[in-house]
Amino acid sequence: MDKMITAAKPPNRTFLQPLALGIASAVFICLILIMGILDLRRSERSLTGFLENQGLALAEVIQRLTQENLNLLLQIHRREGEPTYGPLAKEPLAPQTWLTTALADLGKEVDNNWKTGHLSNDDLRKFAEKKGLWLIAVMNKRGRVIFQNRSLTTDMGKYGEARSAVTLERLAELAQQKKIGYIALQRKDGSGTVIIALDREGLIFWGLKVAVQKAIEKLGEGQKPGLSYMVVMNTKGMVLGSAGRQPEPWKDHDIHKGEILTGARKIASRKVIYLQKNILDMAAPLYINGKIAGLVRLGLDEGSTEDILAETMHNLVVFMIFVAIITFLSMWLLYHNQNKHLAGIVEIERRLEKAERLSALGQLAAGVAHEIRNPLNAISMASQRLKREFVPEEEEKSREFQLLSGVIRDEIRRLNGIIEEFLSFSKSRKLELNMFPVTEVLQKIVNVLKEEASARGINLHTEWGAEPIIIPMDMDKLQQALLNIVKNAMESINGPGSITMRVTPQEKERIAIAISDTGCGMSTAEMERIFNPEYTTKEKGLGLGLALAHEIIKGHGGEIHVFSAPGQGTTFEIILPSEHPRRANGKAARA
């Protein structure tokens, strides 16, 4: 039987549904994570695109301001018969002043190097190449050239050796013939002069440089936070203007510089760390007169976009934690409920098995009654005849004969009691309910057991009123149930003691029958098993008495409660309805 009960438990399924929920939740969380990452990347791309649009807008502003400055700078015309150029209006005077001022700053730089003795023809050649100058020369106070980056004779070719010296008149002639521009800066004390000359390419470079730098300065007047740096370069990589601290130069493959200069890309960007800040480093083409004249390099701070992305990531993590908590809570609840339901199923299976066993016992009782009772009666009759007619004459053998025949008689009586218990248990399920006084049933039990109880030193006490308490009952079955309980109480008493039977009305049309003894009492484990047909503490008999009583009382629609403690006696409280229960067929009720 223990093996059958163990087989009914499904231990391998106890965690199946929670595990399935966990797997489904894990898949769900993974999907959320993937969607969150994709959404995060999409947001990052959107924010990067927003910053790129801001960068393009700034580049377009620089391009527009540069174009305006350059247009003003180039609004000059050559007057007929004069070797000089002059403006058409007063507006270009400011840009021409910018250009003159920029070249004058170069002259001051060369003059400082001259004063400190850190100047040579090689230094001037490198300086001119770096600054995009055609000619730079230094004259003393007598007008003699001391240092120069090139020889006019070598460059002009057609002038004789006598006319190869660098003079202001020669530069004026070259300006008329080669369309170059120049500026001569003389010291205040007349001790020297610095001459800077620009050819057409140099004029274009410096005109664009001045226009760009002034555009950047104008943009900086209303510059908004977020622009870390700006660098404008021509197609050769020479810096035309800058704002902020210039970043490190680009390395190969850092950015698609060639595609931008060819117009294949509108903008290119990358993320870098600049001054311990995350910067979006980007480049856009610079259009002058409809052609790409260089590129604009911008560095925009990603602080605001990082805050947005960090908040999005935080929300994603919080949502995932919330989902995980709900998942684990659901798994725990499902696991708890599943185990509870499985325990209920096991209990139902156990009860069903018990019912099947009881049914089998009932069938077995009928078989035992037919198969054993008749031979048992024959043996009993034969033993009685032997005892009457075949007693030995010798006194010693007679006593032994009487002893053996008594053993046979007692054992026949015990077997007959076992058969009666089987028959009673198998027939206990069918009840015929009629109204009858319950106190009368208890009094009959007292009358039956009074002599036996007195012989064992047990006093039987009754406590009920003179008015009879009538309830619906199957008198024989209920009497049998109460008799079994009283007998069990008597067997629990070793030596003198007492048993008290009490009847009291209860609420909701019910009565209570209490049978209390002063016996040895029971432990909690014993109280949980006393109504089990397979449990008994008796050395003789099957121990079906209390199980039979429990079935009969349940059949009457009642309840039975046990209150006991080791060494403190036991009380059986039987609660029975005082009115007829509802029956499907009008008469019969089943336990």
What is the CATH first-level class name of the domain at 430-590?
Alpha Beta
Number of strands: 20
Mean pLDDT metric: 78
Widest β-sheet, arrangement of strands? 8-7-11-10-9
What distance separates the N and C termini? 24 Å
Radius of gyration, whole Å: 60 Å
Kindly report the oligomeric state of this protein. single chain
Please, what is the CATH homologous superfamily of the domain at 430-590?
Histidine kinase-like ATPase, C-terminal domain
Q: Classify the secondary structure makeup into a structural class.
A: alpha+beta
Query: What proportion of the residues is helical, as a percent range?
Result: 40-55%
CATH topology of the domain at 430-590: Heat Shock Protein 90
Mind summarizing the main beta sheet?
Answer: 5 strands, antiparallel
The share of residues in extended strands comes to 15-25%
Task: Give short descriptive properties of this protein.
591 residues, alpha+beta, Heat Shock Protein 90, 5-stranded antiparallel sheet, 5-stranded mixed sheet, 14 helices, 53% helix, 21% strand, rod-shaped, disordered N terminus, disordered C terminus
Quick overview:
Helices cover 53% and strands 21% of the residues. The protein has 591 residues and is of the alpha+beta class.
Characterization of the model:
The chain has a domain of 161 residues: 2-Layer Sandwich (Heat Shock Protein 90), CATH 3.30.565.10. Helices cover 53% and strands 21% of the residues. It is built from 14 helices and 20 strands. The strands form six sheets. The chain has a five-stranded antiparallel beta sheet with strand order 8-7-11-10-9. Strands 14-16-17-19-18 form a five-stranded mixed beta sheet, with helices on one face. The protein has a four-stranded antiparallel beta sheet with strand order 4-3-6-5, sandwiched between helices. A hairpin with a 5-residue loop joins strand 18 and strand 19. The N terminus and C terminus are likely disordered.
